[in-house]
Amino acid sequence: MADGSSKYKPYRSPAGGWGAAAATAKVLMEQSVVGKGSRALLSMNQPGGFKCPSCAFPDATCTRKLEFCENGAKALAHEATKFRVTREFFAKHSVSELMEQSDYWLEMQGRLTEPMRYDAARDHYVPVSWDDAFALIGRHLSALEDPDQAEFYTSGRTANETAFLYSIFVREFGTNNFPDCSNMCHEPTSRGLPHSIGIGKGTVILDDFEHAEAIFLIGHNAGTNAPRMMTPLVEARKRGVPIVAVNPMPERALIRFTEPQDIVQMATFGSTAITSEFVHIRTGGDLALLKGMMKVLFEREAAGETVLDQEFIAEHTEGFAALKADVEAQGWPELVAAAGIDKAQIRRCAEIYIASQATIICYGMGVTQHQQGSQLVQQIANLLLLKGNFGKPGAGISPIRGHSNVQGDRTVGIDEKPGQAYLDKVRDVFGFEPPREHGHHTVESVEAMLAGTAKVFIGLGGNFVRAVPDTDRSYAAMRKLDLTVGIATKLNRGHLVHGKEALILPVVARSERIETVKGEQFVTIEDSMSNVTASRGVLDPASDDLLTETEIVCRMAMATLPHSKVDWASYIEDYDLIRDKIAAVYPALYEGFAERIAAPHGFHLDIPPRRRVWATPNGKANFLVLPGLAVNAPVNDPAMLRLATVRSHDQFNTTIYSYNDRYRGVYGDRMILFMNADDIADRGLEAGAKIALETIGCDGIARRVEGLTIIDYPMSRGSVAGYYPELNPLLPLAFYDRISGCPAAKSIPVRVVASDAAA
Ligand SMILES: Nc1nc2c(c(=O)[nH]1)N[C@H]1C(S)=C(S)[C@@H](COP(=O)(O)OP(=O)(O)OC[C@H]3O[C@@H](n4cnc5c(=O)[nH]c(N)nc54)[C@H](O)[C@@H]3O)O[C@H]1N2
Ligand SMILES: Nc1nc2c(c(=O)[nH]1)N[C@H]1C(S)=C(S)[C@@H](COP(=O)(O)OP(=O)(O)OC[C@H]3O[C@@H](n4cnc5c(=O)[nH]c(N)nc54)[C@H](O)[C@@H]3O)O[C@H]1N2
Ligand SMILES: [Mo]
């Protein structure tokens, strides 16, 4: 941190508890919204209120208590903040000056208040009217030789109604270029899982946690990134259900947790041990663990025991023999070496799995962000299929999604590879012919910018340049564009790294009321477990000159497509009309949307594997083989370490709430490298040393980040970790999963080198 006051103090208390309660109070105070923020928290995730803008974990339907967590409170406090970014602010600071400021500083300036246009002559953002802003967008888009020269990004906070209209606008305009945050996140789930079980979504619902006999948590940091998930985990543990956590970092909340909303536990300073088995996996070693567990299952079955669900396998699956052959071909020494844990532990994990008649496997970015992330997800499905863990209570696969509506955006059309049947529906419902070729995912959109073929970038939410890989190249790519548009609540780096012309369009946030001439409107959100619920903001909008995201989409469309077949003006006023069209385009999922959404807790979208129905080409669930034990291209360098870029406890993606990371004991610094003591010693280094990291390259481009402090941390051997987005300059654009397009942000091959900054 700028003041050099970094501290490292190992955190030994349980996660949650009074620390979480104190952090909630502190953030409300920092944003000067104690009264307003506390009142709004009472409406968060409650019927008639709004959905938490933080993560996508579902809330309990039989709500006994408040349904928010420390990090949901941070997200709300930062949204409801009393601070404002005004025209005077932009008059005072040039864009070059703002570029010198940290992401944290930009975030702390508060909410955007009116539309702004970049004035190149003065290097300042200046006020622009909404009409002029839309006219500028319309002019640029209409002037393109080819609609494929525009890139339309979506971040997963966008509600269903807005995302649906955006997908219709962009398709009527004529492209399927839909880079979105999901492309960097759970895309391996969306692309990998359909081949296995016929749908790219999780199959469990919250109620299943009450019936599970074993729960596995692979590569996910629930205590920080989905804290409301701790409640079902604590309850499962209290019932004696074994919980296995697989992670190269022993994340605190996976070990011990105090529920901040459990009054007795709080009063007695009690806590619950979460994991019964902590698997200190080597980064990328999950494939070996999964294959090792399957190998034990096959060995036991061969010895005459009944461990597999043979009936299920015979009736519902294909590909069993090939999977078995692949797994049996792996020898124990290689499995153990690749996983970085001992054979006895792999066996223990398998025994837990064998003993359980209903198992849930949850996973996060530790699984998806590898070069073979999609296939790794398929291996999780294989393990579950072997014991028929689909379509029965307490069992299934549970991707823990990121952004609160990232799953919903995908369901309602944000998809660069849309299916033909869906496109036919769009044509029939709206009366235009949508483009049929696949568009760009996130990495491809950056490649198109670098190549100079992309000309216009529109970002519906998010902070694209900070979230994507290869920061330096991505900044350069963005600066080549003719127009960049940031539709946002807060000022961020993406508004400062811009095209020749640029707009910042400020929006009404999730927690704020939407009033139109037709009265109060609500939006809908689909959570990680496919529940669709209404979200109604309760606060006054941060400024009188904000527009709703829906109106912005409609008016961009009206300015760009004067002969549109779509009645955009009507959707600005009445969101029920949008929901009617969603129901018309997706009858199987959304029939009767208007009536069903009236239920206090909304409704659940059909997940066919819950009924043991498989929407795959062969009508079966498929065992799929990923040969070998590597989920990333091998690197032949004895000095190589695998770098995972992770989130701290005080950030939401590119939004930095503070420089602290309480559960990992880090205070006042984000330029940190978490490293195992033996890996430090092997290199003749010491904890506290300032070093640089270099990517072990694949394309001749030098990538280096300076000024990182080594922390002696119980990482698994050969695995290091540091913070996203500071370390994104190390992640090569080309380093991504070819099936899903997801960058391999959890396994960058790096070496530690002496830091220039240390001299
Ligand atoms: N408060 C808060 N909540 C959030 C977010 C946030 O930034 N802040 N972000 C939201 C978003 S968009 C998302 S996608 C989710 C992300 O939630 P998570 O999936 O929890 O994301 P990360 O912190 O990136 O990393 C997850 C874990 O993967 C582990 N890991 C790294 N490499 C490996 C590996 O090879 N194998 C295994 N098994 N584990 C590995 C890391 O040690 C870390 O504990 O959270 C969402 N919720
Ligand atoms: N190295 C590395 N890179 C990663 C990851 C990683 O683990 N490691 N994780 C990846 C993942 S999982 C994800 S999801 C992406 C995230 O990528 P993004 O979704 O693009 O990034 P965010 O930081 O969530 O976006 C924050 C911005 O969204 C805007 N915003 C907030 N609320 C609203 C709203 O209600 N409406 C609108 N219009 N704007 C709003 C604010 O201006 C804020 O600055 O990053 C990816 N990048
Ligand atoms: Mo994400």
Summarize this structure briefly:
This protein has 759 residues and is α/β, with parallel strands linked by helices. Helices cover 36% and strands 17% of the residues.
Keywords, please?
759 residues, 6-stranded mixed sheet, alpha/beta, Dimethylsulfoxide Reductase, domain 2, Rossmann fold, binds ligand MGD, single chain, 4 domains, 33 strands, binds molybdenum atom, 32 helices
Mind explaining what this structure looks like?
The protein is an alpha/beta fold and 759 residues long. The chain folds into four domains: 11-80, no CATH class; 84-182 and 406-600, Rossmann fold (3-Layer(aba) Sandwich), CATH 3.40.50; 187-404, Dimethylsulfoxide Reductase, domain 2; 641-758, Barwin-like endoglucanases. Helix content is 36%, strand content 17%. The strands form ten sheets. The chain has a six-stranded mixed beta sheet with strand order 6-5-18-17-16-7. Strand 30 (690-695) and strand 31 (704-712) form a beta hairpin. The longest helix has 17 residues, at 286-302. It starts with 6 loop residues before the first strand and ends in a 5-residue tail after the last strand. The structure holds ligand MGD (2 copies) and molybdenum atom (MO).
